[in-house]
Amino acid sequence: MRARPATLLGLGLVVAALIALLGLAVTNAVVYYVTPTELAASPVNGPVRLYGIVVAGSVTFDRSTGALSFRVSDGQTTETVTSRFLPTALFRDGIGVVLVGRTFGPRAFAADEILIKHSAVYEPLKPGETIPPDILQQIRGGG
Fold it and tell me: Domain check: are 5 and 73 in the same one?
C-alpha cells in the first residue's frame, strides 16, 4: 500500500514546522552579553545584556524618583547604569552583574533587569552571625 501524495505533503509540512520552531527556540534561548568596552566600541540599538563589576562607592538610590544608579566596569571602560528595580540582597560593590536593558546615550544604560553573578558555593552564617537588619537601607544609600 502506497502513501498518498497529500499525506506525504502533510507530514512534510509538520516536520518542517517542528524544525522551524526548534530553531527559533534555540536562537531565542542563546543570549550573549557584552562588556562596557565592547558596548562603547559598537553601540547596540535595542535590548542588550551588559556584564560588568559594580564600581565601589557608585551605588545611589534617589528616594523621590525611586531610581537606583550605579556604575559598572570591565577594568577598562565604565558605564553608568540606572534602574527602577531594586536588586536582591546579594547586590553590593565589587560584585559581577548582568544587566538586561538598553543604551540611552554615550556610556549610559537603562537596566530593566539586574542579575547578580555569584559563586555556587553556599556558606551559612557562622554561629552568632546575623543578616544586617539595615541591608535595604545600605543598598538604597541611606545607611
Answer: no
